[in-house]
Task: structure prediction
Amino acid sequence: MAEALKISTEQVTLDLPITDGTIKATDLKAVPTSAGPLATYDPGLMNTASCRSAITYIDGDAGVLEYRGYPIEQLAGNASHLEVAYLLLYGELPTTEQLAAWEKEINTHRFVHENVRGIIQSFRYDAHPMGKLMSGVASMQTFYPSARRIDDPEARRMNIVRLIAKMPTIAAWSYRQSIGRHYVYPNDELGYVDNFLAMLFQSQQRVYRPDPRVSHAMEVLFVLHADHEQNCSTNAVRAVASAGNDVYTSAGAGVGALFGPAHGGANEAVLKMLREIGSADRVGEFIEGVKAGNARLMGFGHRVYKNYDPRAKIIKKACDEVFEVTGVNPLLQIAVELEKVALEDEYFATRRLYPNVDFYSGLIYEALRFPPEMFTVLFAVPRTAGWCAQWLEGVTDPEQKIMRPKQIYTGHRRRAFVPQDARA
Ligand SMILES: CC(C)(COP(=O)(O)OP(=O)(O)OC[C@H]1O[C@@H](n2cnc3c(N)ncnc32)[C@H](O)[C@@H]1OP(=O)(O)O)[C@@H](O)C(=O)NCCC(=O)NCCS
Result:
């Protein structure tokens, strides 16, 4: 028997069909109330599905994350970031020939227009790299006006390729501008991740080749960050796209959303917190402060995962790999102690707060000598693959409409205008 939700009020009785565990919110409009047709109130969209998606599956209670049906544990370490980007976009893992063609195409488009260099160069020396990244990404629409033809499949595909290809270049140059170093141009001899590291760190070398352990750990981090279904930045991308916007304009909004400390900025906040705690013996005192409401335990808790974030487990392993090269980050000891104490504490257990992806990633980035402002940039580069896949799915979905939520109005009504000289 088909599932339905029976709603009875004094005026009507309705059977609302339940499909995929949801009712259509617009069906509720058939129920009259004193304030107009019935609607739902859902700040933070905590219990509202805004789209149908076949890209990423999460079971937050079980700690499961899958891209196109492949568990993250199988992808991380086995597939390259570009393989995963292809999977997210096209729904299948690429064959050897498809991957070679995809890598070649991405490699050809890594250079940015020289004027983008001018845009990045024009920022003040202390500008946050996320501001530069956001501007660089949004500016790309002006260099590639074909992106506006979102109904043209080839224009969509080509501009997705460009965005994924150029994102590391804009990100790396945003960093180089901060430190006053020359910009390093993309190198055809290097793959996606190694080329990114080279554009960030190359100094005197003719060809910069990172330690393979570092590049492997970065590849794993990229795969872990590639997509995460309808998170805040993806929702921003989809919302901007729903007005008919191109992939660059939409991804620019995604970069902005990711900048927030409750989203991609959390790993930066974790490092700051670990430094403030200062030593492992002060962890107990800090946890008591969190429980008293003085601070949040950054890198803990998640809107969706009410179990250990599967990405955090994998990152913990990547930490060991990187620390083999760089030496152990002394903050690691504090992080490990924090995790231990929090996981044994009833406050965190009852609220189902576990380490999330940001708890350990900042330690890796710091060990690689990235300044904290770069951490969110290192999240945005791989997440671009997910934003592109979600953008594409959104703009080609016939059920999608311009996103325009309702509000519950709580302000004044129909007040008489008061002339300036008569105001109290
Ligand atoms: C991620 C986050 C924003 C999710 O928030 P949410 O789903 O809206 O959860 P809430 O803010 O409603 O929190 C539920 C309860 O847990 C508590 N809580 C949530 N995260 C907490 C944290 N990191 N430290 C301490 N308490 C926390 C809240 O205070 C609240 O307690 P209460 O019921 O006594 O009021 C939140 O857990 C957080 O701020 N974490 C730290 C930042 C972070 O690591 N973000 C990265 C996410 S990948």
